[in-house]
Amino acid sequence: xxxxxxxxxxxxxxxxxxxxxxxxxxxxxxxxxxxxxxxxxxxxxxxxxxxxxxxxxxxxxxxxxxxxxxxxxxxxxxxxxxxxxxxxxxxxxxxxxxxxxxxxxxxxxxxxxxxxxxxxxxxxxxxxxxxxxxxxxxxxxxxxxxxxxxxxxxxxxxxxxxxxxxxxxxxxxxxxxxxxxxxxxxxxxxxxxxxxxxxxxxxxxxxxxxxxxxxxxxxxxxxxxxxxxxxxxxxxxxxxxxxxxxxxxxxxxxxxxxxxxxxxxxxxxxxxxxxxxxxxxxxxxxxxxxxxxxxxxxxxxxxxxxxxxxx
Length: 311
Prior knowledge:
Layout: E1 3-7, H1 13-21, E2 29-30, E3 35-36, E4 42-43, H2 46-53, E5 58-59, H3 68-77, E6 81-85, H4 93-96, E7 103-107, E8 115-116, H5 119-125, E9 130-137, E10 147-154, H6 160-184, E11 199-200, H7 216-225, E12 232-236, E13 239-252, E14 260-261, E15 268-271, E16 275-284, E17 290-291, H8 292-298, E18 307-308
Parallel strand pairs: 1-2, 1-6, 2-5, 6-7, 8-11
Antiparallel strand pairs: 3-4, 7-9, 9-10, 12-13, 12-18, 13-16, 14-15, 15-16, 16-17
């Protein structure tokens, strides 16, 4: 059976490897075009890098919708199935209808909950105890297709890096177990209930901005959810500070939200609207990421200093 794989970030790599190791023919991998990273260096996507290791042909269309050249390439390949995992573009009906066994998606949530672009980050930001992976048959809607298989995973206390790694591995296992049932016709396709659906919107840089005028548990969840990007951040004086790790304390706030208090050797606390949040890892603008103790050895922090949303 010929399977074309579409994916871009690290999350998708285990699914690609699962297909290859299961012995399926992968005539092509489709991934997003190379982007420029720091200092202008061109960086291939993790999926492209893995495909290159296996010598698989790589396609990198800037856009798929309305791209006749790409559609003709897919027709020439004539895949039996297309597997998608965090590809980054919505597939048009002309592509969805092409493989005889359809297009299936490895989605990082328990559908119909958290359809959309950032389900894993949203699950962490919401403070959910569990989330999961759903293998679904794709249709023209946004993550609205029939569900084929699902697995639920405990994510309590984990950050987005840990959740993404866990779900990517579990998703790959689920994919390897699900494809044979699609191939032999025994798969069951369960329609989603739209009334139970929710949407995980794309994340933007402003989602990370805070002045600590929110409950401590809400901010702590966002710190874990946005640890990779955009990172929860605020301003101390005229410099931005990114927060990478924090702990919720049992102490009630004793001042204005954003006010620094309880300075210790390796941490300091900040008043939120209800309790205090103990900061343990951060990055001052122009400096490297570091523990709070190292930060305070280079920055004269005082009780009463205040984090704000802008300079």
